Structure formats: C-alpha cells, structure tokens
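>> received
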Amino acid sequence: MTKQTLKHFALFSMLMSLLLSASLSQAQAGIGGKLPGKGAAFSSMQKATRQAQPEGSPSYTFTLLNYPGTLSTSASAINKGATTSKAEIVGGYGAETSSGLLLRVSGTKTLTETYQTVNEPHAMQSFAEGINDLEQIVGQYEDASGTWHGFERSGGKFREINVPFAGASGTFAVSINNSGEIVGLYDLSSGGGYGFTLIAGTYTSISYPGATTATASDVNNNGDIVGNYSDISGAFHGYLLSGGTYTSIDVPGATWTNAFGINDAGDIVGSYCTTSECISTEEGMQGFLLSGGTFTTIAVPNEPVTLAVAISNAGAIVGVYEDAAGVIEGFMATP
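>> returned
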C-alpha cells in the first residue's frame, strides 16, 4: 500500500490528518499511478455481510460497499437520522481520478443499494464528504487549474465554498448538519492548514489550542465538532469541541489518533495506530468507537487496515478498509 492510494480514497479530513504538514492540494492530486485489483473480499461477490465479535465489544454486521463497475469505493458519511431500514451514504469512487457518490440503502433482511454520481459540473474530479437528513451534500472538487474548492449541493443545485482567509489555497467542505452548519478544512500555500465553520454565511477558522495544524471533520445537530490536530512535537490527536470547550482524544496505548465522526448522542468514531510503522505505512491502522467514555476497536474482519469515518444516531458506522491486495472499499457496520 502507498500513502497516496489511501489518501485518494479516504475522506479529506482523514487525508489532512495523515499528513498535516503537507499541502492537501498536492496530496489529493494523484495516487502514484496505482490501479488496485480485486482482492479476497470480492473474489466471488461484489458485496457481503460478515459478523465481527471482538472480545468485550459490541457485535457488528459488516456490509461491504462497491460502486458498480469500479474497483475502489469509499464511504465518508452517513446521515445522522439513518434507520435500520433506510440510510443515505456519501463518498467517492474511481482510481486515477475520483467521482462523488450518493448511496441510498433500504431494506432489512435484504438490502437494496441505489448509487448516484455526485459531481460538481465544472469538476475535473469530485468527492462527496457529508450529508444531512435533508439530503444536502457537501464535498470538494478540483477545477481545471488544479485548485480545490468546497461545494454544497442542495435541491440539485451546487454552491461553491471558498474560505476568505489570507494564504488559503484550497477549501474542503466535510460535514453539514440539519441546521445547515458546515465544517471543513483549508490548506495554506505555506503548508499545513486549519479547520473552519460556515454558519449563516460567516466563516470562522478553528484550531485546537497550541496546535500547529488542525482539521474539522464532523459536526452533529447539537453543534458539537470533532477533528484532528498536530501538537508541537508532531504527534497527532483527535479533539472534541463542545460548548466552546476543547477536549483532546487519544486511544489508550495509541501513538496516533484521529477523530472523524460524531453523532447526536456524542458517540465518536475515528482511527488509530499503536506503532511507528503504522504511522508511516498505515499497516495495522484500526477504527475505534468512543461511547460513554469507553473505546471499542472497529475492524473489518481479516483485513489489515480499517478506518471508521462516520456514525449515525442508531449506531451504524461507515468507513473504508484496505485488504492485503491493496484494494480499498467502503463498508457499513450495523450493531
């Protein structure tokens, strides 16, 4: 696996946290020419469900998500109000370039999946990052000059999002709640970047106190925000911003923690590493759920890399995983 491959298929908040010191525009530009082939998870079928029962943690059924006719798919968000019989998921698909997607999942015993492409009309490539219960979607796209812009799609119409901050060279909209509050991140021409909120037309830059770089990854319907930051030593941590108070998030024993999603109950999902090798190669990276002060590992069974990216109010988790052959696919885990 290469860093660029994982970066291409995972959501931008994850990308920034994997390499906060680099320019996001450069990080997204390509995947090193790698075109993944089919892996063991899809050797005989395009999708499957499997039951994971890690000791001392909840049991999940994993549904593997694959955009029809493509080899690589990622899931970046699920609407907070998703139910066991109806959910809306956004993400991206494609190899050398990416296209945004909207996936509607319905049914109980037998799931019906309906995929739709979500691309800004002027985009060279796009990625859908966040969705609320009103089916408003946010994400980002690359224009013909190589500049990245955020977008909001509402009622089938696209609106461009660009932070007004000095030195900003790219804007990435990552999440939207039911009130229309948008969070995301922007990169700087000098390197690195910070998170932002967009509320009623007003942009505000946000960063964990003392951080050298930061992201904003998700916002719930209470206005609570999760994201990631790098401290002065270069270590990576997740954070929660609630009621104006920042709280750092670190998985016990981890050398690297990123928080990506939060639901209205305050449950948080993300990913972590426990070794320096994992930080540099992503091998062994696993997802986590933080609920009621307790951390639980989230991992697609028998696969080396899992990132838990978003969580609904019903506890359904979506994210991406990579198999041993280097194939990256999306998943939905339902408790």
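>> The radius of gyration is 18 Å.
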